[in-house]
Amino acid sequence: MRNAATPLVVVMMALNVAAATADPRTARRSSPRSGPQGTSDRAALVPFKIHVADDVLRDLKARLAQARFPDGLDGTGWDYGTNLPYLKELVTYWRNAFDWRAQERRLNQFDQFKTNIDGLDIHFIHQRSKEPHALPLVLTHGWPGSFVEFTKVIGPLTDPVKYGGHAEDAFDVVALSLPGFGFSDKPRAPGYNPQRMAKTIAALMARLGYTRYGAQGGDWGGIISRIVALNDASHVAGLHLNFCAAPAPPGADPNAGVPAAELQRMQERNAYMENERGYSQIQATKPETVGYALNDSPAGLAAWIVEKFHAWCDCEGNVESRFSRDELLTNITIYWATQTAASSARIYYENRIAGPVPGKVAVPTACALFPKEITTPPRRWVEARYNLTRWTEMPRGGHFAAMEQPDLLVGDIRAFFRDLR
């Protein structure tokens, strides 16, 4: 059995920058910002196609065939963690029926690139709209997600007419893999926290020539996008969040003036999450320890990740009522093939060490609050932290909004940015 550290992906042909980036539509939308020597930062873009090596896939199947499962307890469902019968079915499907090459072809339909920022090669989708006045929008994922969360929304955002919308709602979409995630490089030194990732995103948008853009995110993507809006406010047109993290505002009684229904909703979600936060404590204190196991066992990695999709979706206990097996396994396979279980988990540790980023976001902000989100703060708390101009309480949906309820999310993004163009 060969070592799974075999090179994973093939980068396709170095870019002739002048030819590849001289898009007159982009030029009309924004002027490229120059690098420190006065030369265009666009010179560092390299087209990219995903291609996981054959021996990595063979190694994966061999490990799945040799998976050792612990015993289970009768009648416990998912109470003790990932349900054993379900995991066995998922692993069997992953080994015998899942077609990674088909998923590669699907993902490679998007325009993908790499560029080096802060010493790391950053992978991203850059899908331009055909509409001449499209607004640039950067989408940022979290853990245990990836850029594949956005594959259902990129089409409707970039080509709204094709999906029943209006041309004036078009976006140029940038969807990156965060450092340490997916096909982006892994940091080799401590300190790559959300603040540093926010600088990477601002630098990427500048390198693409965008002087005014929107930011959207959930999970860590929401936290990082908030920092982007704080630190790059002169270039951020608006901030759209489907993860509206907001601590209790200062004062003797932070609940004063909060409607009873909002307090009840928050308390119910907090009570539910009491049994769902163990992963966070582990990854915020000893991410490397659990990383060894997740990097060595694909069955263990699948159990670790799918349990979060099950727990955080609005699916009444049936994860595949919202996400297909292929969707779940495409995301998990990216973690496996890129060996990013440990490097992605470190964001929890780095965030804990760095501490919170103070300040109130001044740019217009929208909160799309899905009912089964892992945190549902009252509107008053969110208003204390953001210049909140749009508040939408969604009728259904959970944590992975772009995958679970793409139509609702797209509609809210369009409506929010309509007055900010």
CATH topology: Rossmann fold
- Average pLDDT confidence is 91
Strand order of the largest sheet: 1-2-3-5-4-6-7-8-9
Secondary structure class reads alpha/beta
Number of domains: 1
Report the top-level CATH class.
Alpha Beta
What is the CA-based Rg, rounded? 21 Å
According to CATH, the homologous superfamily is Alpha/Beta hydrolase fold, catalytic domain
Q: Percent helix among the residues? A: 40-55%
Distance between the termini: 55 Å
Total helical elements: 17
In the CATH hierarchy, what is the architecture at level 2?
A: 3-Layer(aba) Sandwich
Q: How many strands, what sense, and barrel or not for the largest sheet?
A: 9 strands, mixed
What percentage of amino acids are in beta strands?
A: 5-15%
Residue runs with pLDDT of under 50 for 5 or more positions: 1-28, 30-42
- The shape is globular
Provide a short characterization of the protein structure:
The chain is α/β, with parallel strands linked by helices and 421 residues long. 42% of the residues lie in helices and 13% in strands.
List the helices and strands and how they pair.
Layout: H1 17-21, H2 24-29, E1 46-47, H3 54-65, H4 84-96, H5 100-107, E2 112-117, E3 120-127, E4 135-140, H6 151-158, E5 171-176, H7 194-207, E6 213-217, H8 220-231, E7 236-241, H9 260-273, H10 278-285, H11 287-296, H12 298-312, H13 325-338, H14 341-354, E8 361-369, H15 379-385, E9 386-393, H16 401-404, H17 406-417
Parallel strand pairs: 4-5, 4-6, 6-7, 7-8, 8-9
Antiparallel strand pairs: 1-2, 2-3, 3-5
Helix pairs in contact: 3-4, 6-17, 7-8, 10-14, 11-12, 11-14, 12-13
